[in-house]
Design a protein that fits this description.
Elements: H1 4-31, H2 55-74, H3 92-116, H4 124-143, H5 151-176, H6 181-205, E1 214-216, E2 222-224, H7 226-263, H8 266-288
Antiparallel strand pairs: 1-2
Helix pairs in contact: 1-2, 1-6, 1-7, 2-3, 3-4, 4-5, 5-6, 5-7, 6-7
Length: 291
């Protein structure tokens, strides 16, 4: 994963699945606000039994399995064990990445097994906790990594850990609040944001967007010349994260506007009118008492 392509593949998976979950959440809420229920995965084509119904789960399981094979088989060149016995320390980080990806593969496989058979009937809450476990494994990997990320690379991974932690929290919250639209939406938004940040890390740390005053050393680690260059690079990282948040925010608003126009339930407009009336009445009462 410590390469340009190694960040693009998981970034693409998180971005695609997260963006789909954002759209599906706002579409379901706009269609029936009163009957909204959280879904840890969203069928393609609605509730019908079409051939693409389980596409999201196939993308998760297949993408995670493919990336896991790249990390464990291709990156290690099958030199998993050292000549004297034990795990080859040179490829320990690849095996750690493979273990993390295994958890996401298991989530997709368990969800498919629960959906297609009678042997493992898992509720949405249980699947939320399985997904939260996968995110927790990812969080622990990047926090206790055998590859010590320092300097600018460490700062980008620190911001990534924050996003993963929020993914864990939102997924657990979804298990606790199965009728919460904000919890469902937050989970999709954070997955999308994590995917975009993987892309940003790929282009900044291993691609053409390397900050001025920073370069790769002989070990392919990025170093910045002096404290000023390092601080400037970290400030740039903060701005890049803000830009990612803004883009995801704009995408979410766009999805909500389209869903409200296409599927807007009468209760949605009624609820909005009641809330606006309540807000105006509260403002009037506040003005009368001098607040």
């Amino acid at each position: 994963m410590g390469s340009f392509k190694g960040h693009l593949l998981p970034g693409t998976l998180f971005l695609a699945v997260g963006a789909w979950n954002v759209w599906a959440a706002v579409a379901r809420f706009a269609f029936d606000p009163a009957g909204f229920r959280l879904l840890v995965w969203n069928p393609v084509g609605g509730g019908g039994g079409g051939a693409l119904r389980h596409l999201e789960l196939y993308v998760i399981a297949g993408g995670a399995f493919l990336d896991m094979c790249v990390e464990v088989l291709y990156s290690t060149h099958l030199h998993i064990f050292a000549p004297g016995g034990g795990v080859n320390p040179t490829h320990l980080n690849d095996l750690e990445h493979g273990g993390m990806l295994l958890m996401f593969f298991l989530f997709g496989a368990l969800a498919l097994l629960s959906e297609k058979t009678r042997y493992l009937p898992l509720t949405e809450g249980a699947l939320c906790l399985v997904l939260a476990t996968a995110f927790t494994a990812e969080l622990l990997l990047f926090y206790f990594h055998s590859t010590t990320h320092q300097g600018l690379e460490g700062y980008y991974h620190y911001l990534l850990v924050l996003l993963i932690g929020l993914c864990v929290a939102s997924t657990v919250l979804g298990a606790l609040l199965p009728a919460s639209f904000p919890a469902d939406l937050a989970s999709g938004v954070l997955m999308t944001l994590q995917g975009m940040w993987f892309y940003q890390m790929a282009f900044t740390l291993y691609g053409p967007m390397r900050p001025a005053g920073c370069h790769h050393d002989a070990g392919r680690n990025i170093e910045c010349h002096g404290q000023a260059a390092g601080e400037r690079a970290e400030q740039l990282a903060n701005f890049q994260l803000f830009a990612c948040v803004f883009l995801v925010f704009a995408y979410t608003l766009g999805c909500y506007a389209v869903a409200a126009a296409k599927y807007g339930h009468p209760d949605l407009r009624t609820k909005h009118s009641v809330e606006m009336e309540h807000r105006e009445n509260s403002a009037d009462r506040g003005g009368l008492v001098g607040i």
